Amino acid sequence: MPMRKPAQAKYIAPAVHAFLFLAMWALYAGFNQPMMNGPASLPFTILLIADLPFSFFAFGVMFTSTTYGGIAFALWGIGGTLWWHLLGRVIDALIRRIRGRSAGAQPLIDPFQSDATVAPARRILPRLNRKTWPAGVGRRPAFLKGAMMKGTIRTLLLSYVALSLCVVIGCRSKGPTNLCDGFQSYETAQSIRNKLGKLGVIGNWQENLQSVGPPDRRPPYQLLTLSGPFILSGINGRLKLTLYNDRLMSAEFTTENGREYLAKLREEHARIPEDSGKGIQIDRRTEFQYFIVSDGTFRFLWTDPQLESEWNEWVRRNA
Fold it and tell me: Do 69 and 186 share a domain, yes or no?
């Protein structure tokens, strides 16, 4: 009876890669935590090492470009899966070569065995070949097995491509991301005024509107800033909220007690850098950084890079 073929690495390797990649994306999107400092960190670390050097370039684009980050993420998943399919083929070829050498080293009939001993066995055991072997006994027909395998792989690939497109769309979505103290990007000016009114500080705040409209031929826009005294985590300072086209884009907190506030921030986010001016990503996609002014004042900045890229694009084209 022929030996059953072992599981093929060219199918197992890409399937494991696709599973880890989709699990990483699901954990990242579902828990709303940074990829390197949340539930997605384990599959992310595994894939980052397994897919070198491709993952290194994809990782660099993801965290430096808001426009192409989602595309780089999807290409990493698709390209990495195809790469491991090719590696699986190489592994299968090596396994077949090793098995072939092992089979060649052990003949089925002892060459030193006499014909008198071999002949009875030949008479007792019927000669079974593809014509005499009963159909469906012992193994599945080759054509059926091949068709099922091709259909399964085709379904997996189509499903993976569809999910990768969902990743791209999800990464480029316009959903909000947390900035600071409950303020979220894409909040409207009226929503912010209502929050400040409930906190009892709206009377001490100022508004400044910068806009372009008719008769100016450039595309219209509004850049509104609301600023005033505010307390973050028990630290007194001044908060400035900037809205682009009535969508909260950034929050800036200035205080003389910056080191105290920095310590409180590190209790929530251990990845807050020691050096000022170095940006990190927190929450879903919020970019955070802080600066130390010459007079010792600290300036903390939270930005939604998607809205900021829209504003920068308007400036690039129309300023």
Answer: no
Q: In the structure encoding, which two tokens stand for residue 33, read together? A: 């935590």
Domain extent for 275: 178-318
Consecutive H or E run containing 175 = none
Predicted confidence pLDDT, tens digits, the chain (319 residues): 455 555 588 888 888 888 888 888 888 777 656 666 667 888 888 888 888 887 878 877 776 665 677 788 888 888 888 888 888 888 888 888 887 777 665 554 554 555 544 455 444 445 545 454 455 445 555 544 555 455 555 555 555 444 444 444 444 445 788 898 889 999 999 999 999 999 888 888 999 999 988 888 888 889 999 999 999 999 999 999 999 999 999 999 999 999 999 999 888 876 788 888 888 888 778 899 999 998 889 999 999 998 998 899 889 888 7
Q: Which residues pair with 279 in a beta bridge?
A: none
Residue 3 lies in a domain: no
Residues 155 and 149 sit within 8 Å (Cβ to Cβ): no
- The neighbour count for residue 32, using CB atoms within 10 Å, is 11
CA atoms within 13 A on the CB side of 142: 3
Residue 81, CA atoms < 13 Å, CB-side half-sphere: 23
Q: Which of 241, 251, 250, 252 has its CA nearest to residue 310?
A: 250
Q: How many domains does the chain have?
A: 2
Hey, what's the torsion of the CAs at 240, 241, 243, 246, to 10 degrees?
-130
Burial 53-64 (b: 16+ CB within 10 A, else e): eebeebbebbbe
Q: Are residues 127 and 182 in the same domain?
A: no
